[in-house]
Design goal:
There is one protein chain. Helix 3 packs parallel to helix 4. By secondary structure, the protein is of the alpha/beta class. Helix content is 43%, strand content 19%. It has 17 helices and 15 strands. The strands form three sheets. A nine-stranded mixed sheet has the order 7-8-6-5-4-3-2-1-9, sandwiched between helices. A three-stranded antiparallel sheet has the order 10-11-12. Strands 13-15-14 form a three-stranded antiparallel sheet.
Length: 392
């Protein structure tokens, strides 16, 4: 356990009882490392027994320490959770059920790589109660997939969609990446339409991010590959904003589109600052004003030797996260409620400073008001990072 948490367990228990938690487990194993990846992952299968043993230990420890709190969303991310054998997934699921109160559970998500799936595994996962699957598609273009270092092809994505549906997953999401070198607007739109038509009722649209060192970044910097221009990427996002609703997928967050009722409940909790517990190397947790991140050296984490980082948010930091995260949501932020919170905390001056600094973005048409709510305009979503700097 991260040392500062030991003296705060009573407060953490109180926060965990206030409302149901989201529980996230990080499964750090991959068949290969994608050329753009900067996540905490490994190809070393020899670490799996130790990592899974530590995960089981952590599940039981936190279940006991927080007095078996209620959990309403589960999420297995990675890495590649679909590399877990069915018996390993069963062991983790059983430990979760024994350690936490899952009576209010409304969503249980598994991330999966289409190149690792088979029908037997999908049926076994569905039988264990996992009801939502998130497929790392990225694109259906085989040349682009090869460039990204993905282990699957476009055909396998479509087969995975069919197999997941046949196994009983009625909540199916797919990732779609924008900004890949050589990618064209028409290809992105065709991919999105095909994914929606094949049963993906949720799409997460991500910009290729090369802010950290990775093989693809080195190729771009050497001139061997060229990223699409900022204008081309913006044009692609704007085209998707227009096209996706016509295929039944509506925006509910800057990067996420879903059919009605298919929004990711677990991910939404992050943007609404609802409490969550993250277990596994590099996993993050937030309970009350406490936030901590597990150690990111996988072997050391498995042996309990990499302690991680702890942060206790001030009232001003916690307040700032409401608009910082909430403006990502399509419905925006209740600005009157935010003002009342600021007033109660003695932070009205800070609130008025934000309001003044946002005036520029209002005049540019990047913010809109609908009743009590302030939200980003479609163009504001494309320029959101500049707006978010107000709250940092």
């Amino acid at each position: 356990m991260i040392r500062p948490l030991a003296s705060r367990l009573a407060a953490l228990r109180g926060a965990a009882k206030a409302e149901p938690l989201g529980l996230y487990l990080h499964i750090p194993f991959c068949v290969d490392r994608c050329t753009y990846c900067s996540f905490i992952t490994t190809r070393d299968d020899s670490l799996k027994p130790a990592v899974l043993a530590r995960l089981l230990q952590e599940i039981r420890f936190w279940g006991d320490s927080l007095d078996h709190p209620a959990v309403d969303t589960l999420y297995l991310g990675g890495g590649t959770p679909s590399l877990l054998e069915a018996k390993e997934l069963e062991s983790l699921t059983k430990a979760i059920r024994e350690s936490f109160d899952l009576d209010p559970l409304v969503e249980a998500t598994l991330e999966a790589n289409p190149g690792t799936l088979d029908s037997d595994w999908l049926f076994a996962a569905r039988e264990l109660g996992w009801d939502r699957i998130s497929l790392g598609a990225q694109t259906l273009d085989d040349d682009l997939l090869s460039q990204l270092g993905r282990i699957h092809c476009g055909t396998q994505v479509l087969e995975a969609l069919e197999d997941a549906s046949s196994a009983g997953f009625d909540r199916i999401s797919a990732d779609l990446m924008v900004g890949i070198p050589g990618q064209r607007l028409q290809g992105v739109l065709e991919d999105a339409e095909k994914l929606a038509g094949m049963g993906a009722e949720h799409l997460s649209v991500y910009m290729l991010d090369l802010d950290k060192n990775c093989p693809l970044k080195a190729r771009v910097e050497s001139g061997r590959l060229q990223l699409p221009s900022g204008d081309e990427v913006a044009e692609t996002f704007e085209a998707l904003q227009t096209a996706l609703p016509s295929w039944g997928l509506h925006p509910y967050e800057i990067s996420n589109y879903a059919a009605p009722g298919q929004e990711s409940i677990h991910n939404t909790r992050y943007w609404l600052r609802r409490p969550y517990l993250g277990l596994g190397p590099s996993a993050a947790s937030q309970l009350g004003h406490c936030r901590w991140t597990e150690g990111s050296v996988i072997a050391a984490w498995a042996e309990g030797e990499d302690e991680g980082e702890f942060q206790e948010l001030s009232a001003a930091e916690a307040l700032a996260e409401i608009p910082l995260l909430g403006l990502r949501m399509h419905h925006g932020v209740d600005w009157e409620d935010l003002r009342d919170r600021a007033n109660d905390l003695g932070l009205l001056t800070l609130f008025e400073t934000w309001k003044s600094e946002l005036d520029f973005f209002w005049r540019q048409g990047l913010l809109l008001q609908e009743g009590r709510f302030w939200r980003l305009s479609p163009r504001g979503m494309l320029l959101s990072n500049a707006i978010f700097q107000v709250f940092v």
